[in-house]
Every structure is written in structure tokens, then in C-alpha cells.
């Protein structure tokens, strides 16, 4: 009886949400998530180049620096960062101007006098979801802050249902369990798997707090009921098997988002 009642409440909430459209986040910008794979032994030199040159030159050429991180466990020598632009045309123009800037050409050549710093670069282009909180610096700044980047792969046709569950239930439960919601993103339509990927960022007080928050969240009866109801409505899990990836991130000393 309790489960039936919970499912009914969930479906009613979903219906109300569908009938009364939620206000958009208002964030129409293009976001670019870039992952640099530093060459062995070169991560410190890459960070130094960003600290001394790249970040300032990005800003000079109209790019909005959001956050720069390295994974808490980083055997692959990664630097991960997030930029924002008004649109794709502006993004392309900004990067063209940056790459042609004599200051960048000089800094790049000097930093690679003893060999290249980057083996490869991964790029993901994204837009904020309607329920994205965003990255208000004053709300999330503070020493000891631990960041988490999570990527969900929805089962076929279930990305809208996954969005609905986050909008109507998951985000509020995250906050209840002391997790700070930041940006929630969908991939731009031309991206591979754009119809199945949800990528988002959380902030925690520290690593220990993150572990406790996730334990408390997963055992919360409200979450258990919401998850069960959403999967019953879809007829299957909303996320693919092994379709949830998590990475804990530490902000660099030059990251605007600390």
C-alpha cells in the first residue's frame, strides 16, 4: 500500500510538472568541457602554462573561464576545464584569435622547448538544462571544497524521463543531504550520444562528506520511492548498465571556481 501510494504521488507530480512548464534556467550559452591528457611528467609544466598565460589569454579573447580541475586520483595526468561562450560562432572566433595571438605563440613555443606538453585533447560541447543551477561563485566558494563530475547514460528514449526525475526529485534530495547542485548539461545535438547523456557537477564540503552524503541519499525512502516509480513508469531502468560515471575533482590554484 505504501509503495502504491508513493508511485501514485510520483506520477501525479510528473503530470503536474508536464502540465505546468518549469521556467527555463535562462542560460543559453554554449559550454565547452575540455580534457587535456598531459604527456608523462609534463602535467606541472602544463599547469604552469595555464597559470601564467593561457587563462588570461582566454579571457582576453572573450572566453569565460568557469573552472579548472585535476582529478583527485590522476594516473592519466589529466587537466579538465570548463569554458562558456555566447554561441558556437563566437567560440570558434575566440579560439582562432587566441591561437594567432603572438603572446600565445611565444608562450607555447617556450613551454615546449623540451617537448610537447599535451598528448591529446577531448572536447564536449554542451548547453545547460532547464533545471541547471549554474556556477554562482559566491555560493560555492570556500577552502576544502570537493567537486564531483558525474556522467549518466540513459537507456534508449529515457533521457527526458531522467531529466524529469532530476528536476522533480533528485536535486532537492541532493541538497537535503548536503550536496551542492551546480551545472547540469545536455550535449549539443550534433554531439555523439546527445540523446542519452546527462552531465553534471556537484560540490561537497570534502571527500569524507561526499561519501556520507551519497550513503544517506541512496538510503533515503523518498529517493527509493522516486527511483522505483520512475522505473515502473518507463518499464526499465532510466540509466544503462554501468551507465553512471563519477570523478572527484580538485580545483587548481588558478581556477575561478574554487
Distance between the termini: 47 Å
Low-confidence stretches: 1-23
Nearest-integer average pLDDT: 90
Computed structural class: alpha+beta
Number of domains: 2
Question: Globular, elongated, flat, extended or rod-shaped: what is the shape?
Answer: globular
CATH topology of the largest domain, anyone?
Alpha-Beta Plaits
What is the element string, with H for helices and E for strands? HEHEEHHEHEHEEHHE
Topology:
Elements: H1 2-19, E1 30-38, H2 43-60, E2 64-71, E3 78-85, H3 88-100, H4 102-111, E4 118-128, H5 137-140, E5 146-154, H6 159-176, E6 180-187, E7 197-204, H7 207-218, H8 221-234, E8 239-251
Antiparallel strand pairs: 1-3, 1-4, 2-3, 2-8, 4-6, 5-7, 5-8, 6-7
Can you describe what's shown?
With 258 residues, this protein is α+β, with helices and mostly antiparallel strands. The protein folds into 2 domains: 2-14 and 129-251, 2-Layer Sandwich (Alpha-Beta Plaits), CATH 3.30.70; 30-126, Alpha-Beta Plaits. It is built from 8 helices and 8 strands. The chain has helices at 2-19, 43-60, 88-100, 102-111, 137-140, 159-176, 207-218, 221-234; strands spanning 30-38, 64-71, 78-85, 118-128, 146-154, 180-187, 197-204, 239-251. An 8-stranded antiparallel beta barrel has the order 1-3-2-8-5-7-6-4, surrounded by 4 helices. Strand 2 (64-71) and strand 3 form a beta hairpin. Helix 6 (159-176) packs antiparallel against helix 8 (221-234). The radius of gyration is 20 Å and the shape is globular.
Amino acid at each position: 500500500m505504501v509503495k502504491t501510494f508513493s508511485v501514485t504521488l510520483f506520477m501525479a507530480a510528473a503530470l503536474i510538472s508536464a502540465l505546468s512548464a518549469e521556467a527555463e534556467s535562462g542560460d543559453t550559452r554554449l559550454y565547452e568541457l575540455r580534457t587535456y591528457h598531459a604527456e608523462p611528467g609534463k602535467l606541472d609544466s602544463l599547469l604552469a602554462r595555464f597559470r601564467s598565460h593561457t587563462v588570461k589569454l582566454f579571457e582576453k579573447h572573450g572566453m569565460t573561464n568557469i573552472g579548472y580541475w585535476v582529478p583527485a586520483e590522476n594516473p592519466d595526468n589529466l587537466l579538465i576545464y570548463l569554458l562558456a561562450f555566447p554561441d558556437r560562432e563566437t567560440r570558434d572566433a575566440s579560439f582562432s584569435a587566441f591561437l594567432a595571438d603572438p603572446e600565445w605563440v611565444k608562450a607555447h613555443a617556450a613551454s615546449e622547448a623540451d617537448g610537447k606538453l599535451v598528448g591529446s585533447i577531448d572536447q564536449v560541447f554542451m548547453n545547460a538544462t532547464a533545471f541547471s543551477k549554474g556556477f554562482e561563485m559566491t555560493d560555492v566558494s570556500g577552502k576544502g571544497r570537493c567537486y564531483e563530475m558525474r556522467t549518466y547514460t540513459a537507456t534508449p528514449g529515457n533521457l527526458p524521463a531522467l531529466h524529469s526525475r532530476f528536476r522533480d526529485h533528485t536535486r532537492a534530495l541532493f541538497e537535503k543531504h548536503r550536496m551542492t547542485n551546480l551545472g547540469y548539461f545536455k550535449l549539443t545535438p550534433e554531439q555523439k550520444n546527445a540523446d542519452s547523456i546527462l552531465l553534471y557537477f556537484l560540490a561537497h564540503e570534502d571527500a569524507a562528506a561526499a561519501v556520507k552524503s551519497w550513503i544517506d541519499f541512496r538510503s533515503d525512502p523518498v529517493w527509493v520511492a522516486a527511483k522505483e516509480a520512475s522505473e515502473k513508469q518507463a518499464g526499465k531502468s532510466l540509466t544503462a548498465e554501468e551507465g553512471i560515471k563519477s570523478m572527484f575533482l580538485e580545483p587548481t590554484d588558478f581556477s575561478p571556481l574554487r
